């Protein structure tokens, strides 16, 4: 296990060493350590809030995109089709930046309850609507 010397550990060690011989220095170092701990905690809190906000924004974007794309994919899937065939059939109606991989991701994640996926060894998976 790696022994890591952080500022907080170094300050605690210095405080423990100096508390009997130099109480004024130990007191100032204690204040410094406490300030450092508060800053660290605020930083962790702000990172957590930013991460939660990003996740919320991404979920909203994904929901809006799916609201637009899923009906198009439902219209295009007529029989057992590969993701590439579905993409090719819907390409003119899909957003410009859409790819086969994005279509497959929507099929596997967002439409998983509506789709029947057939896996055949050595061939591309096929998808059809579960009616």
Oligomer: single chain
Enumerate the spans where pLDDT stays under 50 for 5 or more consecutive residues.
none
β-sheet strand percentage: 5-15%
Number of discrete helical segments: 4
Shape: rod-shaped
Q: What pattern of helices and strands is seen along the backbone?
A: HHEHHEE
Largest sheet at a glance? 3 strands, antiparallel
Straight-line N-to-C gap: 56 Å
Q: What is the CATH topology assignment?
A: Arc Repressor Mutant, subunit A
The radius of gyration over CA amounts to: 28 Å
Explain how this protein is built.
The chain has helices at residues 7-18, 23-76, 83-90, 100-110; strands at 81-82, 115-118, 126-129. By secondary structure, the protein is mainly alpha-helical. The chain has a single domain, classed as Arc Repressor Mutant, subunit A (Orthogonal Bundle). Strands 1-3-2 form a three-stranded antiparallel β-sheet. Strand 2 and strand 3 (126-129) form a beta hairpin. Helix 1 packs antiparallel against helix 2 (23-76). The chain is rod-shaped, with a radius of gyration of 28 Å. The relative contact order is 0.09. The model has no long low-confidence stretch (mean pLDDT 87).
């Amino acid at each position: 296990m790696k022994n890591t010397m952080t500022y907080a550990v170094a300050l605690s060690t210095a405080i423990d060493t100096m508390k009997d011989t130099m109480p004024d220095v130990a007191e100032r170092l204690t204040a410094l350590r406490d300030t450092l701990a508060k800053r660290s905690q605020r930083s962790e809190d702000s990172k957590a809030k930013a991460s939660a906000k990003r996740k919320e924004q991404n979920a909203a974007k994904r929901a809006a995109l799916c609201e637009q794309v899923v009906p198009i994919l439902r219209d295009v899937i007529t029989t057992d089709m590969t993701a590439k065939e579905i993409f090719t059939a819907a390409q003119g109606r899909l957003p410009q930046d859409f790819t086969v991989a994005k279509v497959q991701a929507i099929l596997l994640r967002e439409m998983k309850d509506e789709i029947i996926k057939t896996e055949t060894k050595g061939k591309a998976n096929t998808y059809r609507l579960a009616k």
